[in-house]
Amino acid sequence: MESASIPVPGAGAGAGEHEHHGPPEAHQSSRIDRQTLGILLFIVSEVMLFGAFFASYFFLRVVANDGPWPPDPFELPVTVALTNTFILLSSSFTMHWALDSIRKNNRRGMQMGLAITFLLGLTFLFIQVNEYVHIGFSARDDAFGSIFYGLTGLHGAHVTVGLILLGIANVRAWRGHYGPEAKDHLGVEVPGIYWHFVDIMWIIVFVTVYVL
Predict the structure, then answer these.
(1) Measured between alpha carbons, how far is residue 146 from residues 57, 112, 141 in Å?
(2) What residues have CB less than 8 Å from 138, skipping those under 6 apart?
(3) Which residues pair with 93 in a beta bridge?
(4) CA distance 180 to 185
(5) Tens-digit pLDDT profile for the chain (212 aa)?
(6) C-alpha to C-alpha distances, 132 to 11, 143, 166, 181, nearest whole angstrom
């Protein structure tokens, strides 16, 4: 198939050498940065992934279950999960502090905010692994065990990815890579968007699995 030719405005006949072959050049939208748009589209896909797991959870709980929930003899450590919830919520505030600090050219505040956010996320993950060790059942124990580990493990995997992003952001922050201009702190803003998504998803997981 031949490529389309777009004549250059103002060129007369015989100016074929000035014709542009193929589609016109793409221009970046000024409304949203490409990196920000990319992470938002990625989050949309992750919401659909979590939605599939939640659909399975409610099917098992509402349709396939006749007795109490969680079914006997399963017991969930609600207090431990609640503590973990406060830890992860706190990390959202420190992440916001880091981003707000670099916007005001407060490099020390950004560095401290990123470091504390990373440590809080690591603490959350450590407590969750410790919960798995002592909870008393595995993913092989009935459908409840499978969906419990499926939902909480999926979220734990996202926390791990978030920690990797935060680790990179921390290293770059201490090397002086960020600045107050919007284009100069995308390395803080983009991981921050992802981290807030991880926090919101945990609240939904906690309420759904541990509270309701």
Answers:
(1) 10, 38, 7
(2) 145, 149
(3) none
(4) 7
(5) 444 444 545 555 454 445 556 665 555 555 677 888 888 999 999 999 999 999 999 999 988 888 888 888 888 999 999 999 999 999 999 999 999 999 999 999 999 999 999 999 999 999 999 999 999 888 888 889 999 999 999 999 999 999 999 999 999 999 988 888 888 888 999 999 999 999 999 999 999 999 88
(6) 72, 16, 24, 43
